[in-house]
Amino acid sequence: MGNKNGAKALLTGGGLNQRDQPGRDIQQALAQRFYYKFINHFSVARVSVKIIPTNALYSVDAPSANTTMNDIRLPKNIPIFPLKGVLLLPGGILPLNIFEQRYLQMFKDALEGNCIIGMIQPSSSQTNKMNTHVYTTGCSGKITHHEDTSDGRMLVTLHGLCRFNIVEEHDHGHLYRSAEVAYLPSGNIFDENANADKHQRLLNAAALYLPTLEDNIHLEPLLEASMSELVTVLAMHCPFSSKEKQSLLEAEDQNLRVDLLIKLLEQAALNSWPSGNQTVN
Question: 99, exposed or middle or buried, with CB in 10 Å at 0-12, 13-18, 19+?
Answer without folding.
Answer: middle
